[in-house]
Design goal:
Membrane-bound Lytic Murein Transglycosylase D, Chain A; three-stranded antiparallel β-sheet; two-stranded antiparallel ribbon; mainly alpha; Lysozyme; 25 helices
């Protein structure tokens, strides 16, 4: 068929009009986007195909240094196993990312765009090592998350929300004060029943905070009915999401209100989608889980309603303190409050029976050092009670073959530095048979008998006396009954004098087995005159006299310690090795 010739001028005019309309339409679109609230100079407008946004702020968990996270995770990865061969990252075409995300069995919409791709590449390239460790942590945390989410009928893929919230760090604290795996603010956490005080912060409790987070997410879904909006509201609060919806004219699609959300929230949903991608397809990018045997130990929970310190548990049950802290991050000061209400304590299953069996031993283990708060101080006001700070007894341990300072310190719930300080050690070398001070305990003073008081009054007409404790050092095979019989006292007296709640004692313990009253040193006329002078002298003399008195007190204490050491050495030299410790030694405390 032959076509008639076209009018070239008419065709040129049509092209000009068409190009003008396209340019006008594009310009109007750019102006509208730039006038959106929340846009900045660094924000590119959204097109029909993609979102370009350079103004988003990364979640805080993505800006953490790996070294800080390893310390907070308290991981021991010295024996970590690698499940796959490490290699370089593999980059895929956008269509592959889109297909992989769409293929995930998810109730939630996990769509792909340029912002999501940016986060995927961040995890796959710059945060590869962090992902490796989080995969290992996931073996511990994800089953716990899944159970709570399933209990409330929520999408299981929400288990990856703490990956971007806290990088699976239970003690994470944001700049705004949000705390724990699920980053609860204080009032929100309390509103969902989490206890927060000086000793306990249940926002850091993996079990309780997970249950609270699931309830909170369910409540948000009741409001919005859209999981992307729920995740956005979880990050910035329902108020900010409602404002974005209102400013957009009532639109309730996350991607349509994207530029009207706070900058910190814009990247939140894309980061969540990227976390779902990388946690499912990590092997495709040659990322290997750094599994640690310390994370796969069988665990159990016991309710504790008595106050105890984690170091007491560690010392008696021979559990590393760091492991107890990792399993129980809710105890802010390593103290289980007790009394007020029962608190859950997580322990390795293999240690659970020992904890129940040795409960009394744990409660009394170095108790005076860990719990110094006084229940009542009325006695100090009426003068009926004086300070017991000087009335202490050393806890001793004799070095055996194979011992070192670290094992001895761990066994007695103390530190190497304390043992070296108490014993004047300048190195870590130990000799077998050496007797070390491994702890301090308060020796409660006991009233003296009327006979002792009468004798003391005869020896000292002024009537001033002081109490002398008689001590016995426990040796192998001793029981409280044996010790009581040897010293002519009752077992109940022994327990009362030494603050024992059970009959359990350890070799090397120094027990009070008796007390007697002796005349107190006489106050000399010179001393009294000096006191009167201080009372009436000017300010400068008062200060100098006070300092002088403190120096004399220090020198007197040094002398007393030296005399006690000499007495102990003499007693050991005079005692038959087979009967060592059978005689009571006396010292003033």
């Amino acid at each position: 068929m032959i076509h008639p010739p076209r009018d070239e001028s008419l065709m040129g005019m049509q092209r000009t009009i068409l190009l003008t309309l396209v340019a006008l339409w594009t310009g109007l679109g750019l102006i509208a986007q730039n006038n959106l609230p929340g846009n900045s100079a660094g924000t590119s407008p959204a097109s029909t195909d993609t979102i370009q946004d350079n103004a988003i702020v990364y979640p805080e968990s993505m800006t953490e240094k790996l070294s800080d996270l390893l310390r907070n995770w308290q991981l021991d990865l010295s024996n970590a196993e690698i499940d796959c061969k490490r290699g370089q990252n593999v980059a895929f075409h956008d269509s592959v990312y889109l297909k992989k995300l769409y293929s995930l069995p998810s109730e939630m919409e996990l769509s792909f765009n340029s912002v999501v791709k940016n986060y995927i590449e961040m995890y796959a390239v710059r945060k590869r090592d962090q992902v490796s460790y989080m995969l290992a942590l996931g073996d511990y945390y994800f089953p716990m998350f899944e159970q709570a989410l399933d209990r409330y009928g929520l999408p299981i893929e929400l288990k990856f929300l703490p990956v971007i919230e806290s990088a699976l760090n239970p003690v994470a604290v944001s700049r705004a004060g949000a705390t724990g795996l699920w980053q609860f603010m204080l009032q929100t956490g309390k509103g969902y029943g989490l206890e927060v005080n000086s000793l306990v912060d249940e926002r850091r409790d993996p079990y309780k905070s997970t249950d609270a987070a699931a309830r909170y997410l369910k409540d948000l879904y009741t409001i919005y009915g859209d999981w992307n909006l729920v995740i956005a509201a979880y990050n910035c609060g329902p108020g900010n999401v409602n404002k974005a919806i209102a400013r957009s004219g009532g639109k309730r699609d996350y991607w349509e209100i994207y530029y009207r959300l706070p900058r910190e929230t814009r990247g939140y949903v894309p980061a969540f989608i990227a976390a779902n991608y990388i946690m499912n397809y990590y092997a495709d990018h040659n990322i290997c889980p750094a599994h640690s045997s310390s994370l796969t130990v069988a665990l159990d929970t016991v309710q504790v309603n008595e106050r105890m310190h984690l170091e007491q548990i560690a010392g008696v049950l021979d559990i590393p303190l760091g492991e107890l802290q990792r399993l129980n991050p809710q105890f802010r000061k390593d103290v289980i409050p007790g009394d007020f209400k029962a608190h859950a304590l997580v322990l390795p299953t293999e240690k659970m029976y020992a904890f129940i069996n040795k409960n009394d031993t744990i409660l009394n283990y170095d108790k005076a050092r860990y719990f110094t708060h006084r229940a009542s101080t009325d006695g100090y006001l009426d003068g009926s009670v004086s300070s017991l700070s000087g009335n202490t007894a050393n806890v001793y341990y004799r070095v055996k073959k194979g011992d070192n300072l670290s094992t001895i310190a761990r066994r007695h719930g103390t530190t190497v530095d304390r043992i070296k300080s108490w014993n004047g050690l300048k190195s870590n070398k130990l000799n077998i048979g050496k007797q070390l001070i491994v702890g301090k305990k308060e020796a409660a003073p006991q009233p003296t008998t009327q006979r002792q008081l009468a004798q003391a009054a005869t020896d000292n007409p002024d009537g001033k006396t002081q109490t002398v404790n008689q001590y016995y050092r426990v040796k192998k095979g001793d029981t409280l009954g044996d010790i009581a019989r040897k010293n002519g006292i009752q077992v109940a007296q022994l327990q009362s004098w030494n603050g024992l709640k059970s009959s359990r004692i350890s070799i090397g313990d120094q027990l009070i087995v008796g007390q007697k009253a002796v005349p107190a040193p006489q106050e000399t006329a010179i001393g009294k005159e000096e006191y009167n002078r201080v009372e009436t002298a000017g300010g400068g003399n008062i200060i100098s006299s006070y300092l002088k008195g403190q120096i004399e007190k220090v020198e007197q204490n040094k002398l007393t310690d030296e005399q006690e050491t000499i007495m102990e050495v003499e007693a050991e030299l005079l005692t038959d090795p087979e009967e060592e410790g059978s005689e009571a030694t006396s010292s003033v405390k």
